[in-house]
Amino acid sequence: MATATPQKTLGAFYTDEPVAQHLVRWAIREASDTVLDPSSGGGVFLSAAAARLRTLGNSRPTVWGIDLAPHSASSVNVLVPGSKLLNKDFFSIHPSDIPSFSVIVGNPPFVRYQTFNGVARDRALRCARDAGVELPRLASSWAPFLVHATRFLKIGGRLAMVVPAELGHAQYAKGVLRFLLDRFARITVIMFRDSLFPDLSEETFLLQCEGHGDACKWLSVAMSRDIRDAEGASDRGLPAEISAIKSGKMRLAHYRISAKARQLYEILNETDGVSRLGDASDIGIGYVTGWNDYFHLTESERKHWGIPIKYLGPAILSLAGCEGVVLRREDWVKLREQRDKVYLLTLPTGVNVKFPRNILSYLRHGERSAVPDRFKCRVRNPWYAVPHVRRGDALLSYMSGQTPRLVQNEAGLFSPNTLHVVRFAAKTKVKGFIAGWHSSLTRLSCEMEGHALGGGMLKLEPTEAGRVTIPLPPRKEAASLVTQIDQRFRSGNAEAAIELIDQRVLRGRFALSGAECQLLRQAADELRAWRLGK
Q: What pTM was computed for the model?
């Protein structure tokens, strides 16, 4: 797989031959099929397509490829003599410029919005808009590419592509998924336990769509260990509820667990006393300093520069040093003694503000270190005034190899964007949510609503965190339960804390059986093992 910087810029993560062969075997069914790869790269899809057509009886197959990279045409001509190649930006081509095709196969460019910008982005978003999909400017390049590609298909045609897992979880991808469901009669999404692209920090799916021109009547999600196990996946996929996927009620990843576990999860989501975190709180990223290492200080750094406490706020950058589920003042003091960066520089602003000599000295140190030139610093006035500093009732770790942690912020600490800040509309509900968070139901919900990154990390965006399901204990029991699970966590017995909440809340309040609690836990463990295997 290509990983050099220019290839990353173009999104050119080329597909391995077994992946291309799998997709063309599924998509190309007749010797008369016409084939387009709109991002042909080194020609692996076109080569596989030509071989497939020959096997079906077409002795002189003609396949079409499009690629912006100047070296692509020469590479493909060697692999597939007689192929028709266009060295152009796919988004500059209108469907009327070339014939329509019975099969489109390929691997869209995976270009993140940070580098997918300017004229290229505007052209791509306009193509998606012309097809009927309004995408935000934060969309990655694969989304408009996939939408635009369907415009080159004949009625009844098939589309088979590698797609990022963002199709199943990104907010902007919902419109793309609805678009596909409105235009293909049958769709199968194949997910893999092992990564298709080990060098790419991105989970990927295979998308197989057929019957172009009809609304979807069959949507299935299939799980395979690797590409060698993917043959026949379309036939063994689990049927998905099309209306629930289109509405966003369900996500593709929900079909990774058994139907029995999924049904129990859905029932609990609709049960009184079970709440989503976002229904009771506001969840957002913490403040952005522009350079955490400068704006946060250890106790020894504070003393070295002689910075008065009144110009500093108590802060925490990570929950790694927080042992319990309640973050207390003594926890912060312990972090301070461990030489963590526990102070945030919080300087007042205004024309009449005068700083003492030690503060001015620290600001000059920042200027010598080019801190004002950093992006987030240079766009604010004054550069040292960190905006949106706020205290949360709770703090949430949003990227973790384990289950994300929600802790009560009893110490009133500030936190940067390394944590999510959770503020409850009713402060009396905080302890109930902290207790319920440590249930098997919520462990499963984090896996269901979050998304996996490369290396097995689980990430919860604020909108995803808002969907996490939490069973609430009776209000009169919440404080006692938080105290008990806090003690268990501090003694290193997290499993005992989960057992306690399952017993007292899931079984005690919601009358789940021991087998049902185990079913939730097993489903959570399966999803966790799935992502950790990547």
A: 0.86
